[in-house]
Amino acid sequence: MGTPASGSGEGDGERLRDILVTPACRDFVAAWMRWRGDAVAPRRGQIELGDIARHLHWLSVLEIRSAEEMIFRLVGSSINATRGRELTGTSLKELSRPEDWPRRSRINVALAGLPCGLYFRVLFGYTIGPPVYSEYVCLPVLADSDDAPRQLFTIRQPVENVTLKLPQLDPVYNQVGEENRFVDIGARVPGSDMLPVPLPPMTL
C-alpha cells in the first residue's frame, strides 16, 4: 500500500482522536496507526493484539466476503455478555433488521473497499438504570494476500461502567447508531449521503 494522501489523518477538519472519550477507542486508534506504519491500512499479519490486550473483550472482527456475506470472525467477551449469546461466527445480516441491511451493507463494503473508517455512538438500554451510550470506532485491516477478504476491526466501549446493569435490552439486532461519520485514513471517503444523517467526515 502507498503512503497516505497528504493531509489525511493530519490535516484540516475535525480529528477522530480529539473527540474520543473512552480508553478502548483511544488506545485502539493509536495502536492501529502504529500497525499501519506508512501504509493506508495495516495488513492482518501486522496486527499486534497485545497492544490492546486490556480492551480485547470489546473488540469485534467482521470479515467482508461480499455485499451479502459478512461474518464475525471474533467477538469479545463483554460484547457477548451484553447480548446474552456468543456472536462469533454469526452473520451481520442475521443481526440486522431488514430495513437497516441495505444501507449497512453498502457502508461496510465502502469501508473495506476504499478503505476508510467509521465513528458512531449507540444508546443502549439496560435492565437496571438509565440508558448509556457506547462509543464505536471501526477501522479496516487488509488481508495478507490481495485475493483474501478484508476485515473491519471495531472497538466499542460504554462511556460508563455497565457491569451491574446487564443484560442489555433488545439484544437481538445491531442498532444503526447516532452521529455516524466516515473517517478519512488517506484513501478518500464515500459521500456523506450514504449515512443515516449526512455528517462531514473526520480525519484520524
Overview in brief:
The protein has 204 residues and is α+β, with helices and mostly antiparallel strands. The protein contains 4 helices and 7 strands.
Task: Describe the structure using short key phrases.
204 residues, alpha+beta, Beta-Lactamase, seven-stranded mixed beta sheet, 19% helix, disordered N terminus
Task: Describe it.
- There is one protein chain.
- With 204 residues, the protein is of the alpha+beta class.
- It has a single domain (23-186), classed as PAS domain (Beta-Lactamase, 2-Layer Sandwich), CATH 3.30.450.20.
- The chain is 19% helix and 24% strand.
- It is built from 4 helices and 7 strands.
- A 7-stranded mixed beta sheet has the order 2-1-5-4-3-6-7.
- The longest helix has 14 residues, at 23-36.
- The protein is globular, with a radius of gyration of 16 Å.
- The two termini are 18 Å apart.
- The relative contact order is 0.23.
Topology:
Elements: H1 16-19, H2 23-36, E1 59-64, E2 70-75, H3 77-83, H4 101-113, E3 117-124, E4 132-141, E5 150-158, E6 178-184, E7 202-203
Parallel strand pairs: 6-7
Antiparallel strand pairs: 1-2, 1-5, 3-4, 3-6, 4-5
* Domain module count: 1
CATH class: Alpha Beta
Helices, by number, come to 4
Q: Which structural class fits the helix and strand makeup?
A: alpha+beta
Ends distance:
18 Å
What is the number of E strands? 7
Amount of helix:
10-25%
- State the shape: globular
Q: Taking strands numbered 1, 2, ... along the chain, how are they ordered across the largest sheet? A: 2-1-5-4-3-6-7
CATH topology: Beta-Lactamase
| SSE sequence, one letter per element | HHEEHHEEEEE
The whole-angstrom Rg is 16 Å
At the fourth CATH level, what is the homologous superfamily?
PAS domain
Low-confidence stretches: 1-11
CATH architecture: 2-Layer Sandwich
Portion in beta strands: 15-25%
Mean pLDDT: 91
- Sketch the major β-sheet: 7 strands, mixed
